[in-house]
Records
---
Amino acid sequence: MQKVVTLKEVTRITATAPMDVSVHGGRAKCLQRLVRLDMPVPTTVALSFSAVHKLAAGDLPDIRSILSHFDEAALLSVRPSSADPDWGGPGAVLNLGMNDTRHAALCDTLGEGAATRLYLKFIQDYAVEVARLDPDAFPMPAVPDRAALNAVLEIYETEMEDAFPQELEVQLTEVLRSMARAWEGTSARLLRSARGAPADAGLGLVVQEMALGVGPGECGTGVVQFVDGDTGKRQVTGRYRRQHQVGADRSDDEGALFLARDKRGPSLQDCAPDAFAALLDYGDLSRRKLRAEMEIKFVLTDGRLSILDAVRVPRSSRGAVRIAVDLARDGIISHEEAVMRVEPQALSELLHRQVSPKANRDVLVRGIAASPGAASGRLVLSAAEAQASAARGEPCILVRRETTPEDIRGMHAAEAVVTLRGGVTSHAAVIGRGLGLPCVVGASDLLIDTRARRITTPDGRTIAEGEVITVDGGAGEVLAGKPAMLEARLDDAFRTLLDWADDFRDIGIRANADTPADAKTARNFAAQGIGLCRTEHMFFETDRVDLMREMIFSQTPEGRAAVLERLLPLQRADFTELFQIMQGQPVCIRLFDPPLHEFLPSDRAGMRDLAEVLDLPLSDVTAQVETLQEYNPMLGMRGVRLGITVPEIYDMQARAIFEATLKASKKGEPVVPEIMIPLVSAMREVELVQARIDAVAAAVRNETGRDFTYRLGVMVETPRACLRAEDIARHADFLSFGTNDLTQMAYGLSRDDAGRFMSTYVQQKVYAEDPFHTLDIEGVGELLSIGAARGRRSRPGVTLSICGEHGGSRAAIAFCRAQGFDYVSCSPFRVPVARLSAAQLALEETRPNLRKLAFR
Amino acid sequence: MQKVVTLKEVTRITATAPMDVSVHGGRAKCLQRLVRLDMPVPTTVALSFSAVHKLAAGDLPDIRSILSHFDEAALLSVRPSSADPDWGGPGAVLNLGMNDTRHAALCDTLGEGAATRLYLKFIQDYAVEVARLDPDAFPMPAVPDRAALNAVLEIYETEMEDAFPQELEVQLTEVLRSMARAWEGTSARLLRSARGAPADAGLGLVVQEMALGVGPGECGTGVVQFVDGDTGKRQVTGRYRRQHQVGADRSDDEGALFLARDKRGPSLQDCAPDAFAALLDYGDLSRRKLRAEMEIKFVLTDGRLSILDAVRVPRSSRGAVRIAVDLARDGIISHEEAVMRVEPQALSELLHRQVSPKANRDVLVRGIAASPGAASGRLVLSAAEAQASAARGEPCILVRRETTPEDIRGMHAAEAVVTLRGGVTSHAAVIGRGLGLPCVVGASDLLIDTRARRITTPDGRTIAEGEVITVDGGAGEVLAGKPAMLEARLDDAFRTLLDWADDFRDIGIRANADTPADAKTARNFAAQGIGLCRTEHMFFETDRVDLMREMIFSQTPEGRAAVLERLLPLQRADFTELFQIMQGQPVCIRLFDPPLHEFLPSDRAGMRDLAEVLDLPLSDVTAQVETLQEYNPMLGMRGVRLGITVPEIYDMQARAIFEATLKASKKGEPVVPEIMIPLVSAMREVELVQARIDAVAAAVRNETGRDFTYRLGVMVETPRACLRAEDIARHADFLSFGTNDLTQMAYGLSRDDAGRFMSTYVQQKVYAEDPFHTLDIEGVGELLSIGAARGRRSRPGVTLSICGEHGGSRAAIAFCRAQGFDYVSCSPFRVPVARLSAAQLALEETRPNLRKLAFR
């Protein structure tokens, strides 16, 4: 996106020449910054995006005028300079100006070997980048002598039916034109568009005098970093290669020197102490003036230092956090800038163990990355086996076709979970994220053979139960064996950055937490309360599921109430513990939601067991199971529908909540529980539940002689509840939008079944994104807007929030801020990400220029 | 609802006295009409609603002034006169003025028996209505002599501790006060509110001089009708009882005379020819002047005729139609009025065979009335058995837990269908209505024992397969045996009325028709085209389902296309037949909608068969079946999602439609097919399907060298499609709202699963009505409004309609008219009802006073 400014198309880079990233590209702008810091940057001329664009169309710049800036004896390089280096671009071409005459001259000054290597390097670059010849036809000869050079020149001449160009003017013209055209080519366009470049992204070029790095005296090329990019800690690293034109890669130590003095081998500090000292100064200077940790490319020519380039030092997520925090602590950047400099998603990596980037990855199958982190363990194919394995102290990985509530205890026992079906909001994925358990779903190419107790990969390998595998939930991959891992660690820099973020954040962040462990995680990540506590898991534990089943088989309200009476103390204890952990913060409890059939066994053996336990004929049990079966459980008898038709459940839950409130309030600040009614579609549903809950509250107050308050609200998760929010809000202190179900209903799309075609749909851009992953602003978002506006109409101060899986995403937070919502609630492990995203969104609004200050 | 007019509270009824139904009630107003026609109505005084209301509060009217209108010797009656006789009211009290003195005098003129009966009747009425004593304590004695009279008077005195009142003034005061209070009592209020009366409904009272009907000469009481209420044909009927005060009930012939001369017995025409002739005159007079067929109550006293009352003659639905049409044909009422006088729902009864009202009903079980009509047949418990039974020519009734698409051929073979599960929009109900098949669903109290091949009723009776039962789909009942039936008959009056209705109707009515039989029915009922042709049934026929299965197991697009190639001629023939039947009218074809798993067997045996047919290992078949299984099929891989991921199906259908279009167009007017895309939630879905269908059209034009046109539209049935209608309408010639699915998704409620709690929900008024039965204007209706408005934004002339099950209902038609929709589409058998409803709605708007003209 080219700015309309009157900048020259060809500019020699000086401290004062007008220069802009959006006109000349990042490399040109960066070089100017280095010039301004008085670093020894070789003479450089920048061609603007516009000049390069014209060039590609055949409109040549004034080559002589470009060349007029350089010493006649100089060799030149041409490098790309786009607005963002990640968008790719043509390769650099070095040593323009080399020809037979110059080669002969340099053989005298540099020696034949060095001079020939310079010429050969140029011929290689030119043949590949300009003449588009096969790189394999132009290898660097083992002995770079005159014979070898001649052989190469002959190959060029044979292929091109023309001699290698000897005129610098011709060389430069062809190199510039070729690089300009390469940028406009289809494959380059597709590539950069895939990396997020706009359609009209421009390319600048810089023509620079070569600092040769070869020849007599101390010559070489190097790169220096002043922090460790992995940890972000200050430490001089980098490599230097003598008599080389191309800098040493950081990972390629062969023949390279360390920068600082090092026991392991020779160093630049030893052989060129002045240059090393100058680099340290430049590092300090650039840190202070460019306000970033830089990686500097340099060349020594006969001991003379040239600075070729500087970019922000490559860094891991952990490194990025510490670098930003340290820069702010040293007063170089503000807290605001530090907060803006870290990609929120990067925090997620810090919270989870990762497969080491250096480890060998033997991928068994790929699926959908559903919950981040990595874990290894023995393959198990059933929840029971997972529990048994955990009991033996053997870590395990649970692989299932799909998970159901019956698998939850098995999931608790496993280190990670893999399912063949489902998408990012399937049962396994939701529970996995809630538990912070690595999870891959939709690994549909895997086959499970439960009889033979093994799995088969798409390439036909079989893994038996008990063999060790690894799940990389962030990459969506299942790996063979047990590769090396990087442990998760939350250091002080991480906490400091989030504390600063909270200073700027203007929307609340709560966590979805169902268990004491979740709640502790939420508290640890400084969530501002629990936005969604699902209570159903509390009924799936062994002792409780039996009671639930007994209740389901009770024929009368009294019978049900009697069974629920026995569940009451357990449920009360659940809530008491939660309230105590979250003391001083709100806890929003969603009343019982799932259909009752989830509590019944689905197989014959389970039904036989149940018949025995309940002392009923098997036919009674199967009949009840059949009666409760549903065609579309998502749209069936659950949530408030159950609350109204079997009101004893909500009665018991309300009592447990109130009694726990009183119990937990004894030890500290009074607890104010929030009670949330799920799946509401009509105002009267709220009215009826409210009446019963108020009655339970009155009874508890009466029995205990103590007072307490509570808030009653609605989980808005049907389109109709959005439309009728004005009515509904008359009976609701808060409206919390359940964006999962709302998405399902707006689209008429079950999240559990969408996996089968969602990838096709997103590929064909039928949906811009998977709406279960990225909040659909156009459709679901409008339902939220309608619901919020109407809710406020009848109750201006109604508390508004979203509590679906979307809650932690940047897009959803942006939407909620724009709508003036009070908070978002997300998985505990997404809370840090959400806190940072929310702060960045607030800063982008209040300090719109802030992002530009960050050095690219 | 009392008008603010200055009408007197006590008014003697004369031809000119101001009198209004909303002030004095219907009986008073009717009596005035009779007075105006110079009929011999005894002297009558009317008390207004206001007078009676004050009376209940203790504020007495001037009794003397009332009595001043009557002869001192007259006995009086008091009768209720509310705005609508259906609202109930206190019973009449006869013979006020009777006391010991008058009794003695009448013994002389009428004889002791008659005089005593008059007194006893008054004492009875007074004791029950005024003194609130037990009616059993006051039986009419076998011999009504003075001794019996004294006994009764003594009982009264003992119970009341007071003598029976002898003063007419006291009698009248107490009777009036008692009747006024009864009207204000709680039970009367509840009763009339349940019958639709407003909270402030008023009661008028009429005080009338008694025409005794007993005594010397020709004395008696009777009722006469001038049409047969069952058929509506003109014919004098009625009964007359000599020496009786209370008219003969129509069904109680004992001791009664016929009106006209009759071979079966004595008649009024024989014994009082003048009175009979006068009655005929009055009938004719009232028909012309009151513009209605009346039932007249009369009394003869010594041969002198008195007219006590006249009401619209009670009539069947069939009778109502013929009476209205005959009145209009005779120029007595306008066509508009005739159209307004028939209840649309009543037409529905005429279209279906009914259990005779006179038949004995032995109810086996009650369920939900899902499709009207009645049928008898042998009980069968499987679709296969239904087909076998039909093949043997034995009518059968199919009873299933629920029906699935696999049962469709069985349903075709059955006379009626009963299911234990589901609601009014379950599969069985929808198909039943489509086929015009009587259907009862949700008969959850029935038990099916498939092994023992029998059903058990709630009271423990068992019915074996093969025994004859009867389904009354209009009443929602299953009956034992084979009661007498009334056949359906569409007479000329029915057709005439609907032709008139069409003159006033201003919204189109189409039919939902899937088969040639449906289409013929639609055409027969003058539907204006097919609004929804579901194509999936075409794939469930034996030869086709096998091809569908073969297609499902094809692994490549080419393989699928090859199988579909074989389906093409069958599908083309389907459409050609439909187009020919509907020649000249639009046919809207919905592309393939159901999930593919509906075509696969669900049981082990079926899978084994399929493996054999396809020559595949059983494990491949079970794996594919498992792969296609869905958690929530309603929200799964169906509709346009299938159209995009397996595009070969829509390609084949489009080709079949276009080739059929050309074929059918050869024989008459060109056919313009409408193609409708189901389950759309995003504009891009439409764009992608449109591109392929346009390509198929181009190919067919190219191959045949012939041109044709078609219209492409969208079935709007997801909330998101409503919200995004502006985008979607850019690619859609028409938007047809599928209110079934839209209701499911707006509420998050599966129609197949809602049956389990819907009755509780409606009883507790959580939902005002079952939203699958009555269009939810507040929620779903708003989605329709949003969709319509937005669709028009991008395409102002876009054709709008609804095609769900709601289409035929009055509320839905009213809504669609208000929104300016083009048409509604409903089951073929609802088309007549919809035509009449639509006409009435148009007339109510354009001629708002029309309804008031109809005599109540």
---
Amino acid sequence: MDYLGNHLLVELYECNSSKLNDQNQLERVLEDAVRISGATPLKSSFHQFAPQGVSGFIIIAESHFSIHTWPEFGYAALDIFTCGDSIDNKKALDFIESELDVKTVTVTEIKRGNAHFPLKINKKVSAQVGVF
Amino acid sequence: MDYLGNHLLVELYECNSSKLNDQNQLERVLEDAVRISGATPLKSSFHQFAPQGVSGFIIIAESHFSIHTWPEFGYAALDIFTCGDSIDNKKALDFIESELDVKTVTVTEIKRGNAHFPLKINKKVSAQVGVF
């Protein structure tokens, strides 16, 4: 394996805004998604913002799931960061899309942590990637 | 503002492995980094793995900081996800690099959540980006 982790950065657009503003429902959806993916949940925390919006994360044995919602835009930023090759992140994503009535999705997949050391790179390399 | 969030995906290579395996120290470093960035911490959770490795997460009012460490590789995956334009994520990153004796860093900056709706995109768009 060339990389230590696999990170899906998911933009969920045109979601059900009521669901995006319901902390309890989002906790259930993310917990179920973790289970469906085959990952092992360890610790989780969610926060309800006023007047609207929820942030939540679940630390899993294989890294994390997180979500930040903007109900006023019908938008949520979802991250599914896993290591190993036994986690079905796509199945988890399909489930979340279905549960939040998502109409438009973009996924950016980033490989995290080059496993081959030493690295032939400069001290600091930056790249900008726009997600549309 | 064209985007709702700004996400730095940071690969920290050739770190001090002892520090990467010290949950208490990592909690302090991330909490201090949040403070230095000007962000508002809300909830945090850290987990020590056996035989090695730590995962940690801080929900901030402006999204999150997270870290996953692989001491055996001297590597940590750091995420600094912020919204608004008042958070100094680069200052936080410089501090973390210094505290963990990091020798090699790569940064990928992803804009999260296009603020202009409706979007002229297909149902599902995927992209792969390797971080070296």
---
Amino acid sequence: MSNSSCDAHPWRVDESSFSWDGPGIAESVFALANGYVGVRGTLDEAQPSLSPGTFMAGVYECHPLSYPEESYGYPEHGQAIIGVADGTAIRLQVNGVPLDIRETPPEYHERTLDLRSGTLRRETQWVTPAGQRMRLVSTRLVSLTQRSVTAIRYEIEAVDYAVHAVIRSDLVVNGTALRVDNADPRVAHALEQPFRSWFGRCHETGGLLVHSTRGSLIGVAAAVDHDVHIPEGGHISTHGDDDQVITTVVADLRPGEKVGFTKYLCHVRSSDDDPADLEAQVLAALDGARERGWEGLTADQQSFLDRFWDGADVEVGGDAELQLAIRFNLFQVLQASACLSRAPIGAKALTGSGYSGHTFWDIEGFVAPTLTLLYPEGAAHLLRWRASTLETARERAEVLGVKGASFAWRTINGHEASAYWPASSAAVHLNATIALAFNFYALATGTTLTAINGFDVLIETARMWASTVHQDDDGLFHLFGVTGPDEYTGVVDDNVFTNLMAQRNLKAAAAACEAYPQHAERFDVSPLEIGTWRGMADSVYVPYDASLGIHPANERFTTYREWDFATDPGAYPVQEHAHYVKIYRRQVIKQADLVLALWWCFDAFTATQTARNFSYYEQRTVRDSSLSATAQSVVAARVGHLDLALSYLRETAFIDLRDVEGNSHQGVHLAACSGSWLALVSGLGGLRADDEQLHLAPRLPDKLHRIAFRLRWRGQRIGVDTTRSGTTVRLLDEGGQKVPIWIDGTLRVLTATHPVTSPLIVPHPTTEPPRQPPGREPRD
Amino acid sequence: MSNSSCDAHPWRVDESSFSWDGPGIAESVFALANGYVGVRGTLDEAQPSLSPGTFMAGVYECHPLSYPEESYGYPEHGQAIIGVADGTAIRLQVNGVPLDIRETPPEYHERTLDLRSGTLRRETQWVTPAGQRMRLVSTRLVSLTQRSVTAIRYEIEAVDYAVHAVIRSDLVVNGTALRVDNADPRVAHALEQPFRSWFGRCHETGGLLVHSTRGSLIGVAAAVDHDVHIPEGGHISTHGDDDQVITTVVADLRPGEKVGFTKYLCHVRSSDDDPADLEAQVLAALDGARERGWEGLTADQQSFLDRFWDGADVEVGGDAELQLAIRFNLFQVLQASACLSRAPIGAKALTGSGYSGHTFWDIEGFVAPTLTLLYPEGAAHLLRWRASTLETARERAEVLGVKGASFAWRTINGHEASAYWPASSAAVHLNATIALAFNFYALATGTTLTAINGFDVLIETARMWASTVHQDDDGLFHLFGVTGPDEYTGVVDDNVFTNLMAQRNLKAAAAACEAYPQHAERFDVSPLEIGTWRGMADSVYVPYDASLGIHPANERFTTYREWDFATDPGAYPVQEHAHYVKIYRRQVIKQADLVLALWWCFDAFTATQTARNFSYYEQRTVRDSSLSATAQSVVAARVGHLDLALSYLRETAFIDLRDVEGNSHQGVHLAACSGSWLALVSGLGGLRADDEQLHLAPRLPDKLHRIAFRLRWRGQRIGVDTTRSGTTVRLLDEGGQKVPIWIDGTLRVLTATHPVTSPLIVPHPTTEPPRQPPGREPRD
């Protein structure tokens, strides 16, 4: 475990606290977003930079996917998120010399992301080559309450000498090209200049640009205005064309004098509306922003975040860095979803273009539960988007030769964009994760599935499973030729995780149809079909290796050759040093698979099996995926290895702040961010909610003296506070309903007036602390 | 079964006997080659044409292979055979009107491939728009004795009126671009104009071109000369540049007068020599051709083929078409190999650019045995080429994480060029097929493995198997995550064919090392290593489904869901109508897999098992590969279903003459061509040679009254002649050694003076004639 710096501010991420390698990580960590629009955390003056840009959820371009060997049902088109018109650049010249911190190391330079105010503040003081001391303060926000609005407060001061300052503030389309790694030149061609400009307009203090993607035909309008304060003699002017709006502020500053402005940026998108509509919408958004003004926008931001933290905050006693990291991670989850609408949440949300902006099953698996318990509105938006792709998923099911619906492994528009079927179309488990995210939302919020269009998602995924499973001579139902979450073990038979998740999907669909027979009838679900689902679910085959006393991740897994960590390539990730033909049938695990089943399908395993399974897989799991540590942390906690649980929790929590995977410059790892909260509350807190009631089993590792968290359960806020003295659970809303809650297996009833307390249990694990593969100890 | 046209000439393929769809099939069927150079059977006047061209074995260009999702060990470069300088075009104008049979339907038009003279003769008579009757006779050969030489005898006659004739005879490089289906534009870029010209020269009657590929740096020189006979007043002239040599013959013909020439074309290739060397080599070849002259070349051709047929001919009494087809197919096998040197035999040999000119394991599996028994020199060339790729195969083994060597699934230069690993790198069985082809050559010719550089091939493949197999708790050796010959069942565990072939590979390597201990020592093979190979071979796991009494093609195959031929897409090939994710775990078989094991590893199965297995797989095999029917024919014969055996034999035999697969325009299916002979002698003839002795078990279907074939066994020619009266086996060479031979299980001894006779056995099959999937009855 790294030394915790005890002076970590509990709510602020300061750049100076970290030593990031290159500007890319700061661009991701300091990205601001609201689920509708996101801006990378590039410096105002645009340099140094790795990949600046502004993204909008659901704004992507298509490109050809070509295969050296084609086959039936391979997707023909990829999708990639693209940078929209970017207005973050504000370039400064002082007496003809541009501000560039690489050329002129500043006397003082700090950037701070404030998780309570929802702003990124930057302060830089430097001395120009001619000796004039200057100070720049800028504050940036992407509004969590007005989805189109980004605002930047920018101000410079001539500290000790008179200077001539020129500030150039941009809004530019097609100016932030993605790095396209694809060797097919047609991909770069499609993505390099993705927008066709409709028109641009400008006036003295700003202007607007309206454009549309060439292939996917998505219209985008961006508008900018500046509310300036200029000393006498200075002036502002704007020029531009269809691709850019450039506003220039010129001022002579006397010592101590300042010049600056509030820059309002607005973005709207639509696939339906014509350019004139887009123009009207973006101007309306701009009017709204100016009307609130900088003070109003920051007040709204603060107030929105106050409400969020009031129901979501986490306190970690004894580890200030971890405390900050989890808050940062929850901020990312909120940023990804606050104003989400009719678009997916990408694996990197709107903080970068990693994974081409695609969403994966991990969003439903690792982000939706957190949102459901902390910000249900965000979960609802996310799930409604997925439900909106149901028709596409039905078409895909037909291509794959199954009934019902089969959702895309990676996508922005709902269509499958994965080019490698053994790790996508074969990873059929994703459908269960998606379906059960809907189910959990309804359960935890106390609303109905139909509110999030989830009823038919459950039915159609159940139909997919029913047409995929195969009843063997043993009378049990099998799933052959699938790939589980562990992508180092592909195209296998009877993956335990997949089989158990299919079982739960079938049961949930049956239960929903039984609870709402009129809906079931509308979807032509007969009692016979429901009975079939239940029968299949009850007879799902779960392989077990009796000689080892553990569950093979899939049939025969425990008979595979062991990975020879001593002489086989020891470098990680394994997939970059060994061929699939070798990896697929070795006992080397990329990411929690059976261990994920121990968490998500915990009731399929006895406590002894859970402990033995965890030990077995721990020695074989290399965590080459950032998704892994969360599950390992949760299960480590549940089997009583609290130090290990904390280590994995820290690894997950610092995934981006410490660039654990070395690729945070592509955007934050949203699922792992969310996973750090799940590791805390589901692992150390022991939270479960599977049988429609809340369960807790709080544990405290030696290094922590307190864990407190909050969550929303069926409309009420609940606070859980664990110290060495025990756990107190409170209803945080006055006049609330009573809530039954299980603590360490005992049913208690929580009311607004009566908190519940319970002593802290110190676990006595039945297994030794497990070892990891060499070089894959927790990176905490 | 189609009606046999009883008037099929026994040695001639006449175009008029077939109704091919478009000019492409004739271009393949009438292609002439010698294993070094090959020319497509395009008409002299170059039109109508689908894809004309001249190919040379081993002359290819590289191109990028790019993947939408890259992974470790994926090949980065593809290879594709490319057309070299083409000299087949001889265009004719009569009184200013070009000969084009599409414009002016001829009075008479016939092309004939003569399998005894090894020539393609063409005769056309037509009346020009102005009413002059003309006759054109041309004869083409690619010399089977002088590898560089193609010769064309071309002559026209003005039958009834005086005409002015202009004949333009070309040699052109970069003139026959391939159709490039790859969507990646860089592939087309690499292949469209593959040659860079070094220089060209010409003189009055011909010239030469020297050039080299841009990427693979293979030098090619082509030279042309014309030996003309021109009526008085006519003349010949040649002009050209670095890319072409154009010879023009002009003559005024009186009625009954002729003009024509012999065109000598020579090609040489080298990766090492400089342009001046290439020029000298090609001119020497041209001198050699002119020195022999047309009469000499045709006499050599005839004499070479007389010798070949004398040791290889097949007679089929009662089916004249089948008789012709098998001779045509043997001619293809000979054409592919006669002058082969330091290059592979592609799946289409030199008759077309299908499969990019790549060689596959089926060449060793289905062509090498035929060559070994009929034209061992060709087999030796083929195997020596494969042995020359051993170092590359060692490098590939390292990438795949195994020891020893792993040969390429598809290649021209030895490097893996397959872009889809589940059907290539996972199809590890190919290594056993290759190794055992070396073993069979040594066995059948009575020479040593070292003569074909096969010793280390056996050792290195055995080492690959030894490092790939995995000993399980049952003490048996398993192979996990492989793909067998059946590409509709991918990435499976314990494929029976693969396991049995690995076993044989290990045993053969052990036996070779024991027989030649000094070689073994040179390759550091210790007695311990040999013992390990034998131990592994003895303990290979072979799955068996006791309840069904059959062998699952791989572990659990018989528990997969059945393919629903009624409601699942009924269209073939299945892979164009269903996704791999569905196909891979269904009981639908693309091509003989377990059934191939019944043939190649027959001693692993009892007679009852063979019969039951065949019936089971017959109902599930859709023959979406042209390789399948051969194995099905052989096994059908062995289990006594002789009518079915004949039906599959005919399907295989007519694969190209009747364009059974609809893709013969891309070149002939060489493995299936060779397979038709194997189906005849190994199936109906019951030929086996596995325990170092010859075995026969001749059978006659009702529709045939005689089968006679010849083969070479340890340097001696043997003739087998089966009629209803029984079988006679003769040594065809005087003064030969005595040969032990088993006929229907009885050991006999054959000497030059004493033929062996045996009565014909009529089988009584223990199973009903099996049924095929709907729509996949034999296409005979």
